[in-house]
Amino acid sequence: MRTGGIDSTQIQNMIAQLKAHATRPSLTPPVIKTEPTAAPKVEFSDALKNALEGVNASQVKAEDMSQKFALGDDSVSLSDMMIATQKASINFQASIQVRNKLVSAYHEIMNMQV
Fold it and tell me: Between 46 and 22, where is the model more confident?
């Protein structure tokens, strides 16, 4: 009997394979960690640099796609170009908001009484 393009015997074979795999004992026992591993420390400057590089990469990609679309390249559709442009815009606006918060925090710290 065929249902939706897949034969019912194929479905039964897949189920049998899944059951056989589930009941097969694993070759190595699972490792149980008793102590949580410390997360690697990330410097603020490195995190900020990586974020800005990501924003730049999205803007470069959007610019490249818009140039290809303007030149009539069939590999770039209008929707893909518009989505890339909007992503770049959102990334840029988010980085502006982070910058504004940093400047605000800096001014607040500088105005503190010692």
Answer: 46
**What is the predicted pLDDT for the residue at 27?**
58
The DSSP string of 71-101 is TT-TTS-HHHHHHHHHHHHHHHHHHHHHHHH
In the chain, what are the domain boundaries? 44-110
Please list, in sequence order, all residues whose beta carbon lies within 8 angstroms of the beta carbon of residue 52, skipping any fewer than 6 positions away. 95
pLDDT reading at 60 higher than 90: yes
Q: What are phi and psi of 3, to 5 degrees?
A: -130, 115
**What torsion do the CA atoms of 81, 85, 87, 91 make, to the nearest 10 degrees?**
160
